[in-house]
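debug: dumping io for the single-chain case to check the tokenizer round-trip. Nothing else runs in this session.
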Amino acid sequence: MSMKRIFCYLFAASAAVCAAETLRAQETTPTTDPGVKIGETVWATRNVGDAGKFVANPEDFGGYFTFEEAKTACPDGWRTPTWEELDKLSYTPFVWTTLNEITGGRFGTGNNTIFLPATGLYWKDTAEAMGYGKVSHYWSSTSVAADSNEVSKGIALAFTDEGFSRFSTGANASCTIRCVKK
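debug: decoded output
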């Protein structure tokens, strides 16, 4: 029996709170996801948290990864989507909305929808977060020619309530990841 369970039994008035905290702790590092098929692609319903693990809830931002890190961040059985897959997603029905008070975009129709929170992006060199709640940046696995002073440059899907764009950037940007089934 774990220490947390003993604590919960000793303090019966807070047992429900302890049980909820224990369950949430187990849910913050899942490596499986049911996935949702949109078009021909099965998308994870949650972002990547730590490398190899999904966050607990669709509205959780997850981790911020450089382009190089993004290539291997998805859990087993999943991979970072290509630019073509992200581009196709941007042509599916879309609505800018909120989920549990978190702003983002809902893609798809009927039961086949996913919510991508407006995560912004993080600049490593200046330690500056930008766009939280206003814009989303999701890595693809697709690279483009790098400038002479950069290791590699990746393409991300950027979107707001006003539309979508292709965002290419180098080693200083960290974005979130929504995996697709291998």
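debug: round-trip ok. The first helix runs from residue 3 to 10.
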